[in-house]
Amino acid sequence: MCGIVGYIGNKEKKEVMLSGLRELEYRGYDSAGISVLSSDVLSTFKTTGKLINLENKCKDFKSSGFGVAIGHTRWATHGKATEINAHPHFGETSSVVHNGIIENFLEIKTKLESEGKIFLSQTDTEVIIHLFEENLNICSNYLEAFKNTINSLIGSYAILLITKSAPDKIFYAKNGSPLLVGASKDEIYFASSSTPLIGLIDRVCYLEDGDIGVMDIDSFNDLTNIQPMSGEKMSSQKDGYRYFMEKEIYEQHKILQDTIRGRILDNNVNLELPDDFVNGVNRILICACGTSYNAGLSAKYLFEREAKIKTDVVIASEFRYAEPIMEKDSLFIVISQSGETADTLEALKLANKNNLKTLAICNVDNSSIVREAKYSLLTRAGIEKGVASTKAFSSQVMLLWILGIYISQRKNLISKTQIKAQIASIKSSLEAVKVNSYIHDKLKKLSKRYLHGHGFFFIGRDIFYPLALEGALKLKEISYLHAEGYPGGEMKHGPIALADSELFCVSLMPKHLLYDKIKNNTQELSARDATICIVAQEYNDVADDIVLIDKFDSYMEEFFAMMIVLQLLALEIAIRLGNDVDMPRNLAKSVTVE
Q1: Across the strands, what pairs with 38?
Q2: Could you say which of 147, 442, 476, 589 is catalytic?
Q3: 145: which of 135, 365, 368, 392 fits an S-S bond (Cβ 3.0–4.6 Å)?
């Protein structure tokens, strides 16, 4: 989603802004801009499209000496992706960047227009700068003017504002969208995530909802909850791969080793949770969006089968508005790659308000969701730059699988022999995610046959149904082809009406789980002339095309092996179609608005 950076100091501010925005590119954006205030001159540059367009636009601009600056990458919510709608938005003496949505912007805009203010953009953000400049004329000081402005807003926001009235300061406000401030010697940095700041600061403060203030070079130590900044700068290199997504598919073997490290022992599993964590838990409610929802749906099958505990999975964007019944003996699990997913975060806050035991499954320490949850487990997947999640999904499913065994173990529902078998299967699954170069080459060749038609069905049974959903989602995200995931048994209840020679069907046929059932479902589609691509351990004559995975002894090993095939298939189809695999159209990496 939209990205924010800010800076106070003596460096070349244009370069600081551009460098920070480059680190946020992977989150997805359609326009970008910067504002620099130095020597009492406020300069703003903004463009649509890639960051290189912004670099070219301000290539001759210099800003030496002390000053302040703000920058932004925008993912359109209000108004099309045009230069005039790009951030920063500016008035006569001030400039602002904003993540989130101002819900009452139309009411404010109408009032300001009636007073003679002229608006240039279609955005909700522009009301902030005009309202601030109006308040400057009637308030006793600039901080009061800023606070009055923020207090007039309804919605979610992370806001940075600079003004000639206070040329050495950045004003900030946070409510529902992430924002942090960091410091090093004689420098202050702001950002919407830690990524742009790693290696630049030694201390950081993660701002909380309701925080409003003004920052100058000397006021960082006045903040509360300051902590040391940790982490290494992520690699911005593709290391020989064509796309970051491809690199991230290949590195899943390594990151899953990190996911299980210290958690899988010889005869039991161990998680960073208190010994009484499962006490009083009789049901589980999982809440997530997108890929994380598919991981949660996979966990439902694992939890109910292995831990014998009732599990429901809900889409976070629907949860809060359905007047949900929250039972006190429920464990409320939220799943998010970024830890900033707005719908999931708000659902988590509601669960906490109802005094449920809450657990976050997340990839980013110190993210909003991790800080909000009562307990958390990190997937340790590393920073994922491809917008379409790959290693986030595999690490989430792996960690949820381990959690299911952990609950079974704590509830004495699983024998030592069964635990050892599960652990052996987990370790073998690490081998299953190693990319087989022969399979990848086959998928490269096969992909050219799957570029036309009116759509794809991905079908599976049991836990392979959410994997089918994830396979369809990956294809939709990066190829822009229509694809749907279904339980195999649902075909005859409506979807099979679409079956003809222009329909592609990808069938997941694990040897160790409901093989005969999914085979029958696949034959029903084949009989109606659909083109069938089977992913399986062994040959089946119902297939037009078949992708053979290695031989495995359990369905979970097959699950991870088939996951790799689906990710690579989507990748190769998208590449053949000439799409930008890492930054697909209309999508953002971290969705911080509802």
Answers
A1: 41
A2: 589
A3: 135
Q: Residue 88: is the preceding peptide bond cis (ω within 30°)?
A: yes
Secondary structure class of 521 (helix, strand, coil): helix
pLDDT in tens, 574-593: 999 999 998 888 776 556 55
Name the amino acid, one letter, at 496: I
Domain membership flag for residue 233: no
Is residue 2 part of the annotated active site? The answer reads yes
Asked whether residue 224 falls in the same domain as residue 242, the answer is no
Give the distance between the most distant pair of CA atoms in the chain: 81
579, two tokens: 């799409």
Q: 346 or 76: which carries more pLDDT confidence? A: 346
Q: 536 with 582, same domain? A: yes
Q: Of residues 2, 289, 505, 533, which has the active-site annotation?
A: 2
Q: How far apart are CA 152 and CA 173, in angstroms?
A: 12
Interval 114-153: pLDDT, tens: 999 999 999 999 999 999 999 999 998 999 999 999 999 9
CATH number at residue 7: 3.60.20.10
Spatial distance between the Cα atoms of 109 and 112, rounded to a whole number of angstroms: 5
The pLDDT mean for the chain works out to 92
Is 289 one of the catalytic residues?
no
Amino acid at 401: W
> pLDDT for 96-116, tens place per residue?
999 988 999 999 999 999 999
Q: What is the pLDDT of residue 1?
A: 57
The tokens of 95 are what? Answer: 């400039």
* Rounded Cα gap, residues 209 and 87, in angstroms: 22
In a domain, 375, yes or no: yes
The C-alpha atoms of residue 514 and residue 232 are separated, in whole angstroms, by 45
Q: How far apart are CA 34 and CA 6, in angstroms?
A: 9
Q: Compute the distance between CA of residue 256 and CA of residue 259 in angstroms, rounded to an integer.
A: 5
In a domain, 560, yes or no: yes
111 and 21 in a common domain: yes
Whether 578 and 593 map to the same domain: the answer is yes
Global pTM value: 0.80
Nearest CA to 398 out of 213, 263, 208 is that of 263
How many structural domains compose the chain? 3
Establish if 347 belongs to a structural domain: yes
**In sequence order, what are the residues at sequence separation of 6 or more whose Cβ sits closer than 8 angstroms to the Cβ of residue 518?**
459, 460, 461, 464, 488, 507, 508, 509, 510
pLDDT at res. 17: 95
Is the pLDDT at 46 greater than 90, yes or no?
A: yes
Domain encompassing residue 526: 435-594
